Amino acid sequence: MIGSLRGRILAKTPPQLTVEVGGVGYELEAPLSTFFHLPALGAEVHLLTHLVVREDAHVLYGFGGEDERRLFRSLIKVSGVGPKIALALLSGMSVAEFHACVQAQDTGTLTRVPGIGRKTAERLIVEMRDRLAAPELSAGGVRSSGAVSPEAEAYDALVALGYRPAEATRLLKGAGPGTQSTEELIRRALKGAVRE
Questions:
Q1: CA 111 – CA 120 distance, rounded (Å)
Q2: pTM of the entire predicted model
Q3: CB neighbours of 14 closer than 8 A, spacing ≥ 6?
Q4: 15 and 76 in one domain?
Q5: Parent domain of 49
Q6: Mean pLDDT for the chain overall
Q7: Does residue 38 belong to any structural domain of this protein?
Q8: Long-range pairs for 58-61 at CB < 8 Å and ≥24 separation?
Q9: Are both 130 and 191 inside the same structural domain?
Q10: Beta-carbon contacts of residue 154 (< 8 Å; ≥ 6 apart)
Q11: CATH number at residue 50
């Protein structure tokens, strides 16, 4: 899997761009939110990527931050939502705006995105509600640094241990304020789970 690219921008034609890395030009598709923050042609750029392998093509998608890539990966797991619809969603709204739509069960705003009908919007709200409880997705915005907070790491660890997303979020909220490290957050969350 190609996780990221750092190179020189050769071409930009939304939603496609070409980034040259070590003499090889990689063609990527990116949401408009990433395009808005790209430097000029010839400048160096660092993009997080996700590779989709199909029978007829290998398509590389590029993102300006981890929040966008994480949401893209969650969206393409929803039944009936492929990479094109996920890209359209990320082009039409920010991570925070999508989160707000799901929390408010706002199908109207989602159906304004090309390719999303009422049934798809309803499915997105139902299937994404628990997934968006993750701290890194609920924070909103794009982190260009790609840094992951201790809360996000602790959340991922709890989900890997078998906790449902909503349970992991609840346990982390119960961990109490003032906890700094990922290890301490996990320890306190698990102590809270034992007490229940």
A1: 8
A2: 0.67
A3: 30, 32, 35
A4: no
A5: 4-63
A6: 83
A7: yes
A8: 59/29, 59/83, 60/2, 60/26, 60/27, 60/28, 60/29, 61/28, 61/29, 61/30, 61/87
A9: no
A10: 172, 175, 182, 185, 186, 189
A11: 2.40.50.140
Are residues 132 and 163 located together in one domain of the fold? Answer: no
pLDDT digits (tens, 9 = 90+) for 42-75: 999 999 999 999 889 899 999 999 999 999 999 9
State the CB neighbour count (10 A cutoff) for residue 55. Answer: 4
Examine the domain organization and report whether 160 and 183 are in the same domain.
yes
For tokens 């990922």, the residue is 182
User: Structure tokens of 33?
Assistant: 């939110």
- Please choose, from the candidates 89, 75, 74, 76, the residue with its C-alpha nearest in 3D space to the C-alpha of residue 32: 89
137: its two tokens: 């997705």
Residue 11 is assigned to a structural domain of this protein: yes
Cα dihedral across residues 34, 36, 37, 39: positive or negative: positive
The dihedral region occupied by 48, where left means phi > 0, alpha psi between -120 and 50, and beta the remainder, is beta
